[in-house]
Amino acid sequence: MRGSLQPLDLGIQIPYHFRCPISLELMTDPVTVSTGQTYDRNSIESWVNTGNTTCPVTRANLTDFTFIPNHTLRRLIQEWCVANRAFGVQRIPTPKQPADSALVRSLLNQCSSHSAPTQMRLNSLRRLRSLARDSDYNRSLIGSLNVRHVLLPIVFDYNGLDEMKYESLGLLVLFPLSESECSSVASDSDKINYLTSLLSHSLFDVRVNSAALIEIIVAGTHSAEIRSQVSNVDGIYDGVIEILKNPISYPRALKIGIKALFALCLVKQTRHRAVAAGAPAVLVDRLADFEKCDAERALATVELLCRVPDGCAAFASHALTVPMLVKIILKISDRATEYAAGALMALCSESERCQREAVTAGVLTQLLLLVQSDCTERAKRKAQLLLKLLRDSWPQDSVGNSNDFACSHFD
Questions:
Q1: What residue stretches are annotated with the U-box domain (predicted)?
Q2: What is the pLDDT of residues 190-213, one digit of tens each?
Q3: Is 2-87 assigned to CATH 3.10.20.30?
């Protein structure tokens, strides 16, 4: 609806009772809760899924979590949209009905039945995947019915039909795995080798889903030894990094790719493999394409790889690394600033050329502003250390103008 609501800035006011009390946006699928209040389905489902058990407006406890479609209000909203179409307001789409638990159980039974026809099992998997994509409510319902126990055996049935395995994989990555499930998969070399082989599959969707499952498994395994075994598998870094090279027309690939790369790079012993696979160049080239949260992960990965001598050298040799890191300071978020400052500290500690590049890119002003900002204490500490390191590289007039910042504090 975002595109259709933009023309409302011309003077069209959304009636108060058409707005969701949570999002304050025009409701597209109004539902009524047990207290009698009406909300947009996506908003109230998100509210409940984050652990809230009260009505956002009345603060009364919700006696049940059944959301009843408010067809009358939806019809009124639709009529209002039609009446104001001359102002660019579009009809709201017909909402998809939430999944029924009996239907989900039936589909899961069909998926897990070895006696059922293959096409029926495949169609059931596709239907479940479609339902899971429709809404948070559907995913929560499907997840509560032990879908993982059905899907894991299918994904790793090496004698099974490939199409079944790939469809199961695409559905499985929509749900979190328990620690025991993650450890069970991660400690099985055959399963990890199989997932790694899928990173070079001809179907790009299969490659991305494989990377997603690898990230879930590595992030959900607490054993450092097992995580190290996974990240040390030949080709695993190469496959994940190839996904990051995909054109930005497929944004999910960027999101999954950087999550997987970051999870693998948390294993200190195998970071050199990420460097050898070309991670530094890809990270710098893609940095501007990431959304905020993913940009933070990317910068955290840059800082981790800068702690490896080969990684530091690779980043230092890329012409855009230092200018981009300088530009990011105070631009994206406090975390991004902290990671960028840490990476610059590592690079400038090893290379005088990087020091000169940082100064030329305007790092002095950025660091002085950072020290005075409300950023994290760790970021300020890194900025102070970097200022001290770069003192000999400062232009003379900048040194003179920096007295107000008490730079002697960094000695």
A1: 13-87
A2: 999 999 999 999 999 999 999 999
A3: no
